What we know:
Elements: H1 4-11, E1 20-22, E2 25-27, E3 34-38, E4 45-50, H2 54-69, H3 78-94, H4 96-107, H5 111-132, E5 139-140, E6 147-155, E7 158-162, H6 168-181, E8 185-189, H7 196-207, E9 215-217, H8 222-231, E10 237-241, H9 244-256, E11 261-265, E12 271-274, H10 281-293, E13 305-309, H11 313-326, H12 345-360, E14 364-367, E15 371-372, E16 380-381, E17 384-387, H13 394-397, E18 404-410, H14 413-420, E19 428-432, H15 436-445, E20 450-453, E21 486-494
Parallel strand pairs: 7-8, 7-10, 8-9, 10-11, 12-13, 12-19, 13-18, 17-18, 19-20
Antiparallel strand pairs: 1-2, 3-4, 5-6, 6-21, 14-17, 15-16
Helix pairs in contact: 1-4, 2-8, 3-5, 3-7, 4-5, 4-7, 5-6, 10-11
Amino acid sequence: MITQSQIDEQRSNSAEVGTLFIDGKPADGHSGEVLDVISPIDGTKLTTIAAGSDTDIDNAVKAARTAFEDGRWSQLAPAARGKVLQRIADRIEAEAVSLAVLGVRDNGTEISMAIKAEPGSAAATFRYYGELCGKQYGEIAPTAPGSLGLIHVEPVGVVGVIVPWNFPLMIGAWKIAAALAAGNTVVLKPAEVASLSLLRLVQICHEAGLPDGVLNVVTGTGITAGAALGKHNDVDVLAFTGSGAVGRQLMAYSAESNLKRVYLELGGKSPSVVFADAGDLDKVAATLAGAIFRDSGQVCIASSRVLVEKSIHRELTDKIAVLAQKMRIGDPLDLTTQAGAIASEMQMNNILANCDRAVAEGAELIMGGERIAIDSGGFYIGPTLFDQPRQDSALVQNEIFGPVLSVQTFDTEDEAVMLANGTNYGLSAGVFTRDISRAHRMISRLRAGVVHVNTYGGADISVPLGGVGQSGNGHDKSPHALDKFRNLKTAWIQL
C-alpha cells in the first residue's frame, strides 16, 4: 500500500529522465530544440524534453528495422521473449511509486488512481503478454487428402506507436507489450505533454534485457515527430490512441506513404442507461460520479452521458450532484484527493469553452463549469453537471474529455437505445437494471465495443478494448491485441 510519505519523498525528485532513446542508448535530438514540460499541478516548468525531428524518427525507424531483420528479437524463441517481458514487469513493480509520481507531476492524474492505472496496469500488461508469448499456435487447415495447408503466424516488422497524455504508461504498455510479444520492433512517440514516464519505461525495458534497437522512443510534437512516423515508408503498422482528428490525419499519412496498417482507439461519448429497476440508487449514483469525475473526466471510456428513466430522473440527478459537491479536487499528489488536474492549460480552456457553449445551447447548468483553485497556478475544473441538453447539441454529440456530465431522460427501452446510439461514437456504454433479460437485450442493442452492466470500468487485461463507428478500429488488451501486430502466411503443400 502506497503511503503519503513515499509520495512526498518522490515529489521533489528531479524529473530529468534522459532525452530520446534510439538503438539502446540516450540520444540528443538532431535539431537541438527542446519543449518545456509544464506541470498541471501548479503551472510551473517541470523540465524539458527533446523536440524530435524527421531525422530523429528516421534514425529510430532504421534502428528498429535493423533489429527486426537481424532476428535479435523476432527470431528469439517466444518463451525467451516472454522471460524478458516478465523481467520488465518486475522492474516496473519495483519502481511503481517513482513512476506514478513522475507521471502525476506530468499529467495531473490523482495519485490514488495513477498508482493502479499506470505502473500497476503496465506491470500486469507486460506480465500477461510475457506469459502469453509461448502459448500462441499456428493452424492446420481442414484440406482434402493429398494437400496440407499450414497457416503461419509472423510478426509484421516495425510498429509505430503513438499514445496520448492520459494514462501514458497503461496505454503505452497495452501496445508496446503486445507488439513485442508478437516479435516486432517498436518506435514510440509519446504525447508531448506527458512523455516522462514513458521515457523511463524504455530505459527499464533495456535494463531488463531488451536488445538494442527493439524499442526506441522519440519525443516531440505531433505535427513534426508524429507526422514523420505516420508518413514513414518503413513502418509496417501504426497503433494510435487519441483524438478522431489526429486519427484521420494518420490514415491520410498512410495513404500518402506505404499504406501501412493503422489501428485507431479514438474518442467516445459513452452513455450509461439507468432504468427504474436499477435498485440501490445511492450505489448507482456513486458509480456514475466516479465514471466521469475521476481523473477529471480525462478517460477514453468515461461515461459522459447519463440516460435515466423519467420516474427516477430527479432522485438520481440530485444524488449525483450531492456526491460531486463533496468530491475533493486539488493536489493530485495528495492521497485524499479524488480528482486531480486537467492535463494542460489548452485542454482546460477547451473544456470551459464547451461548458459555455452548452449553456448557450440551452442545457441547464446544475453545477460547475468554472475553473477552480486558481491561486494554485494549476489547471483545475470542478465536477460539472448539465440537465436535459438537446440530443443534437454539441454537449451530447462531441467528446469534451473533461469532468462534464449530461443527464437526459427516456420513457421506454426503445427510446433509451435510440438516445444511447445517437452519436457517431461507439466505445463504451453502461446499463443499470436488475432485469437480466433486459440487460442482455441492451448488451445486444447498444452500439459499443464494451458494455458494462451494473458497474462501470474496471475490466482487466483479459478482455479486449476497442470501439465501433468513429471510436476507431482494432483492439487493445487480451490475446486479440496480438492480431494487430501479426501477419498470417499460408503454406500450401502438395503431398
